Structure formats: structure tokens, C-alpha cells
Amino acid sequence: MWTDKQRGIRVSQQELLCKNACGYYGNPAWQGFCSKCWRERARPAADQRQDTRSTSDGTPLTFSKFEEKKNTEKGRRINTMRRLFWGSPSPPKRQESPESHANVLKAFQSLEPGDFTGFLKILRSPSSQRLQSRCTAFLNTMEAYHHLPVQKQSDHVQDFYQSFAEYFSTFPEAQVTQIMEHVEKLIMTRLHKWAFCHDSCDDEQKDLILQRRIRSLSWVTPQMLSVPFPDKQTSVTGDPFLPAITAIIEMDAKRAPQDKLACVSKCSQHVFEALSSSNSEPANADDFLSGLIYVVLKANPPRLHSNMQYVIRFGLPHSLMAGESGYYFTNLSCAVAFIEKLDGPALNLSPEEFDGYMLRQRAPAVRTKRLQIANDTQHLLQELQGRQEKLDQGMDALNMQLQEWVQAVNFQLDEATAQFTLVQKEITAQAELSLDTSSSSSDASKQGVYEEQSVLMLTDKQAGPKDTDC
Question: Which of 34, 120, 286, 452 matches a 20 to 30 Å C-alpha distance to 52?
């Protein structure tokens, strides 16, 4: 799939499609087939192995015994599926009238895209009681038989999806897909604790192996994978793939397969954005796969193998076989397969150089673009730190000057207040003194006037008789 010409990683669109030439996306987990073709090939093989085990005692079955066993197995499978779908060995009689069926379909037709809460309200309504009973019976049965092998559980869930979708056979395909996404979220959110990383499979061991493998490849640089990375002339100073790394790590926290696929799609979109910001040319499929491999190596997502197998086993087939989510998930599967088989020629390294890196005897060259960006960023941080220190020193000096100025102003205010008090006391004393002086002078003037009046009266008395004698 990959060659070392022109780029370390190359994959064509044709190599992503199903080997059966059905037009859907294949997957390395299904040996290059899509989920539909893989199930069609896997089920006859499983039935053949079961028939082989039944005749392992060396006694050949006669035709009548073979037919009897075949009918018994067929009846057992039918009863199992009826019990899964209806909650009882035999399905109840169909009591739904055409009017109620039309009302249910009309209610689901008015459902807005992505409105999971609205879907639950419609499902719990009295008109949708039959559909709700089917979901409840299936969930209860799956929880009761959670010890079944995970592949059996996967087959039952996929059969339930197909049976439930037949109820909306008159709807357009896009609307049926929307409804089935809600059904998947409802079913698998509740079955997650039973179906994820099941005891009947070795997903946990493979998770540990994959994590160790990714950890041992932590020395791989973007340049080795031919991933466009921002240079010194660009305004990008950090790792532009950080949002993609965060998105792929969030996948483990989701329960529904479609939510895990949404994290993969979000991660892939961030990879395209990072490639666009790092390179003036538009990103192509080779750049995208290289960037996705780099993101997986740097993120080392928890339980990556288990999450991918969970999506493969219990996700809706159309989400993995076609569309944007199917393309992104197929590339993620290719990235994991590439990491598991990574060697020196894929990185344009000799076997000796690759072994030296793996044994920690060698390290990537120091003067690479990424390290140069890191050094420039470190110098910039040091310069900003120096500016910050100078600014802090200036702030401290200004604060001290401000405190000294406040103290000086307070001292001047105290002096002015004291002088004002003294002046006010002097003015008060002078006013009191002038008041006393004015009162004493007025008394003396009054006494002088009285004396003058007395003198005049005496003078008049003395002059009176003289006038009479005349």
C-alpha cells in the first residue's frame, strides 16, 4: 500500500475501497473488505466451522440427521432473534392499525436532524409504544446475555438495526439514516459497559501492544513522515496539530459509536486545517494520511484498538462504508496499520538508522525546522520575560514615587492645616481685642457728652436771671 517514492507514505483512493469492488470503503480490520462484504464472507465460514465441530466425533451424519440438525439450528436461531426483538419466544400479534402507523411515521418525519431529545420524546409517546417495547426488550435481552461472545453480540445488534430500519422503509434514505443514528445512540449508550472491550476478545492486550509501539516511536519527526510543518516565515509558533491531538484523545470518553466517529471526523478536519496553515498549497490525500499518522504518534490515544473495534462491531454500516466519516475512519485504520508495520524504508531511513532510533542510540538531527521553531519560541519567551521584568521594575519604581508623593502631599497638608489653625487663632484674638477697645471708647465718649450737657445746663441756669433783669 505504501511506497517510499517521493514521499514516505502514499495511498491511492482505489486502495481505500473494498476488495469486492462494491464501491464502499474497505478496512484493514476486515482484510480490505467493507463491513457488508465482510459479514457475508464471515457468516458462511462460521457456519462451516460449526458444522465441522459437530462432526468431530468421527461419525458421519446421514442425510436425515443432517436435515434434522439443520432445522433444529434454524429454529434455534429464529427463536433467539424473536426473543431478542420481541422479548418472548414468539412475536406478539400485530395490533397496530394503519392510522397509528401513519401517525408514528408522521411524528418521525417532523424530527429535526441531530435532535436526540426530540427522538426520545417521540419514542416514549403512546403512538410509538410498539417501537419502544422492541427497544426495551432488545436491551433487556442483550444485558441478560452479555456473556455471549462479542462477535455474536455484534451480529445481534446489526440484525436489530436492519429490522428496526425496515419499519421506516417508505422514508427517504437520508431520513432513515438520521433515525437509525438516534437508535444506535440509544442502544449502544446503554450497552457500552457490556460490549466495550469484552472479555471474550483480546482487545485489552492489543491496546497495550499498540500503546507500547507508539511510545517506542516517539522520536519520529514530521519531516520523516513528510508532513508539512510551519517554517520561520509563518505566524504559527506552536504545534498546529494540537487541536487534532485533543480531538482524537476525546474519542475514548464517548459511548456511542457515532460519537466516537464524530471525534475522528473532528480530528481529521483539524489535520486538514493544520496542513492548510503550514503549507501554501492545498493538502492532498498523502499529506492528510501523513498528518494523521503524526497525530496518532503524538497523541497515543488511550485504548485506540478497542475504540476502533467497538465502532466496527456496533456502528451503523453506512457510517463506515461511505461518506465523510467512512473516509476518515478508513484513513485512521490505515494509519494504525502503518504504525504497526513501520520500518526504516517508510521513513527514508536505513535499517541501521531505524534500529539506532528504536534503541535510543540515535536522536533526530538538532537543526530541523521544528526544533528551530522551538528555539525561536524560547528566545521570544526569554525576550518577553526580560521585558516583563523591566516592566515590573518600572512599576515598582513608579509605585515608590507615588508613595513618596502621597507622603509629601500629606505633610504639606498637615503644615497648611497647622498654619491655618494658628492664623485663625490670631484672627480671633485680634477680633476680641478690637471689640473690647471699641466698647471702652464708646463708654468714654458717652461720659464726655454727659459732661458737656451738664456744663451747658449750668451755663444756662447762670445766664437766665441776667436776661430777666434786663
Answer: 34
